[in-house]
Amino acid sequence: MLALRFANQLFEPIWNANYVDHVQITMAEDIGLGGRAGYYDGIGAARDVIQNHLLQLMALTTMEEPISFRPKALRLEKIKVLEAARVPGPISETTARGQYTGGWQGGQKVPGLLEEEGFATDSVTETYAAITLSVDTRRWAGVPFYLRTGKRLGRRVTEIAVVFKRAPHLPFDDTATEELGQNALVVRVQPDEGVTMRFGSKVPGNTMEVRDVSMDFSYGHSFTESSPEAYERLLLDVLLGEPSLFPNSEEVELSWQILDPVIKYWHTHGAPEPYPAGTWGPESADKMLDATGRHWRRP
Amino acid sequence: MIIDLPKTTTSLVNSKLVHLRQQGGVNAVGRVLTLVIVTDDDERTEEIIDAANDASREHPCRVIVVARGMKRASARLDAQIRVGGDAGASEVIVLRMYGPLADHGDSCVIPLLLPDAPVVAWWPFEAPPVPAEDPIGKLAQRRITDAAAERNPIKMLDARTKSYKQGDTDLAWTRLTLWRAVLAAALDLPPLERVTAASVVGDGDSPSADLLAAWLAARLKVPVRRGKSSDSQGIVRVELERRSGSVVLHRPDGKIGTLTQPGQPDRRVALQRRPVADCLSEELRRLDADEIYEQALGGLGKITRGRVSTKPPTPEKAPTRTRAQANA
Q: Distance between CA A36 and CA A49 in Å, rounded?
């Protein structure tokens, strides 16, 4: 992410509210919580994943250019954006949560959370959480950041999708661009690390028809050596005493400040909405984006 | 290359796909859509995969074949990945599902869909009663059925009219494209007169003939008769009546049609019955709602069924009239 943004001239000029429509950060897992009840029950997806992993990814996506890649300089920039980030209200409309129920997933029958061993049968622990964030800086004013995570979703994937605004004027007739979506830049964190770019192209044939296509860069394809797993990298950094990617206490503090109002609200308002295992989350999450005319992309 | 993954899960299939891609650079870029084929697991499955492979040469796609196997077995998923020479310009994933899993095909399809890319569902044989509400149909932007492959095509067409949602389409409709093109082009030439009535004759079981009649009824807003012929397949004859004489398109042998227009020599037109792969490629070219198909379905109620007199058009009369007009 850092190399993509700061080593290239291509992306940084459009990396702001003038061109970006919204950003979706997804961390989905297809596994359930069997055997992890002791840790997870009462904690939930927001505390488990959003608080650290997704907010860190968001910070790396939104921060200004650091003066160097030394840990201190990086941290300084991350702290700035984390201080500027907040969950806009009303929280009932800008967040969503869910809990998976049993069903068929990927060829196997899986139990719902309430049937998993170790969970209370009336547990209100959420296994899916989605929140909207706004970053109040000149660069990002008005651009919503949608963060979502969950267990027993469609497939295991972590990615950052930067979705761009539509072209202000399309000199085609109505039907030519009916199938054209918004341009997007997707950074795939795992699996199959790489970058995908989506843009419109003319469909071959004698009619003028523009359709989305994707251009693809895959790490494993361009460099045959694979990059280390996320946790390997983290441990190496700590051992070397250069924990540049490891959030320090101030960052952790700020992350909690962002998330606290949401958790407090959830605590006092109802229970998570059930969603069938193997789907992409509860309906309320779709509604959360529908309200602004956007939709989750299928990762 | 064909890789068998017996007794597997979709996450294993997914990691195998990533592995294949990194190892061989198989299928690096450019998939434009996911085509989900829903069928029962039998000897016809291979034919359908071949048709999809042909279509993939025009539309590189990921093909997911959901083959429902025996229901009275224990739940089990057998997967097969085909890439390279065995899969045209696509990658084919055949998912054979047994036991209770066979009713939950969508659970195996969701994890294998390509990111962002549109999804097209195709039922080459029996389709669900309401395609748009089928679990797999719900995932798709475009749902392709084939009324001609159903047990009762004409009845099925009525059902499709009732259950129509944007994105539905039918191969019986795609088979008409050439006919529609020839007829529309014929009306583009002088004399530019209104059509007063029309008729379509075809096999009693042909849903395409019904759709063609319905299309004429919906677009021209004239009475249309639909007659049956017993000796040949598909559409045989279309007649558009106009004041100066009729435009007749006649295809007795299922291969070459003859277009007769007043004041002009007969023209031979290639009107081959189209193979499934052809129709599929055409359907995949557009992924937005087919409004004209919707209108044609709406016209089904307006056609009158009954005998159509197929007396040859009177070529002598019409030219005389044109000549008279020229003199006047």
A: 15
pTM: 0.84
Give the tokens for residue A104.
């068929």
Q: How many CB atoms lie within 10 A of CB B72?
A: 7
> Which tops the pLDDT comparison, B115 or A233?
B115
ipTM for this model = 0.81
Q: Which of A281, A297, A252, A279 is nearest to A25 (CA)?
A: A297
CA atoms of A24 and A292, how far apart (whole Å): 14
SS3 string of chain B? Answer: CEEEECCCCHHHHHHHHHHHHHHHCCCCCCCCEEEEEEEECCCCHHHHHHHHHHHHCCCCEEEEEEEECCCCCCCEEEEEEECHHHHCCCEEEEEEEEHHHHHHHHHHHHHHCCCCCCEEEECCCCCCCCHHHCHHHHHCCEEEECHHHCCCHHHHHHHHHHHCCCCEEEHHHHCCHHHHHHHHHHHCCCCCCCEEEEEEEEECCCHHHHHHHHHHHHHHCCCEEEEEECCCCCEEEEEEEECCEEEEEECCCCCEEEEECCCCCCEEEECCCCCHHHHHHHHHHCCCCCHHHHHHHHHHHHCEECCCCCCCCCCCHHHHHHHHHHHC
pLDDT > 50? residue B187: yes
| Contact assessment for residue B129 and residue B90, using Cβ atoms and an 8 Å cutoff | no
Could you report the per-residue pLDDT of B278-318, keeping only the tens digit for each? Answer: 888 888 887 888 889 999 999 888 888 887 766 554 444 44
| Residue A31: closest C-alpha in chain B | B11
Q: Are A112 and A101 in contact (CB under 8 A)?
A: yes
Interatomic CA distance for residues A58 and A51, integer angstroms: 11
- CA B326 to chain CA centroid, Å, is 44
Give yes or no: A53 in active site.
yes
Question: What's the pLDDT score for residue A238?
Answer: 64
Give the span between the Cα atoms of A195 and A219, in whole angstroms.
8
Cα dihedral sign for A266, A272, A278, A281? negative
* Among candidate residues A26, A42, A45, A257, the one with its CA nearest the CA of residue A160: A26
Cβ–Cβ contact A105 with B under 8 A: yes
Distance from C-alpha of B51 to C-alpha of B274, rounded to nearest angstrom: 12
- Chain B residues with CB inside 8 Å of A106's CB? 9-11, 107-108, 111
For residues A235, A238, A239, A242, the Cα torsion angle rounded to the nearest 10 degrees is: 130
Show residues of chain B in contact with A216, CB under 8 Å. 28-30
Please say if the pLDDT value at position A185 is more than 90: yes
Query: Are β-strands A194-202 and A184-190 bridged in parallel, bridged antiparallel, or unpaired?
Result: antiparallel
Whether chain B has a CB inside 8 Å of the CB on A30: the answer is yes
